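The records we work with from here on pair a chain with its fold. Taken together, the tokens spell out the fold as the letters spell out the chain. To see the layout at work, look at the sequence and tokens printed below.
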Amino acid sequence: MNGAVLVLNQNYEPLNVCNVRRAIVLVFDGKAEILEANGHLVKSASQSFPAPSVIRMVYLIHRPRPRVKLSRREVFIRDGYTCQYCGRQCHDLTIDHVVPRSRGGLHSWDNLVSACKPCNHRKGGKLPAEARMALRKQPLEPRAGRYYTIERRIEGTVTHQWSKFLPGFTPISVGSANGRGASRAAR
């Protein structure tokens, strides 16, 4: 009952990933229909049913476009696991406030960048101009891509039943040299 189930909107747009129990409740309440089964059976006292792998909502769910959550990992992904001062790619990065917090800098997308430890130490509590350092690109809030809501909930690989409902989807590779999967690059 703990398997992952892909939840599609009425228009086949990926909405979420839930567990089998939640998917069965949605199906029995008449809110969703099973499109693909995972080959297992879910048994009750008097019946058994195919365990869903992909379900589709019966009614269209309207939701606002998601925003990328501000976190260390997302800043590193946005910056391609590259120091924004020297351009070195590494896995030993830190987060730097362009305008230091001690000088009123905010903890926001447009004030945070990835920096290697030597560059972060060299800059310290100064502004980039005071430390004679330049940013390679201005930090901006990234747009959430087509599969943003589900790519963080998928553990492991996408099953063959899901692949036809997720064209062009490649899970983001955490900690890779460039930190970007095809789904991120397609944004």
Remarks:
- Strands lie at 4-8, 14-19, 32-43, 48-57, 93-97, 112-116.
- Residues 122 and 167 are 44 Å apart (CA to CA).
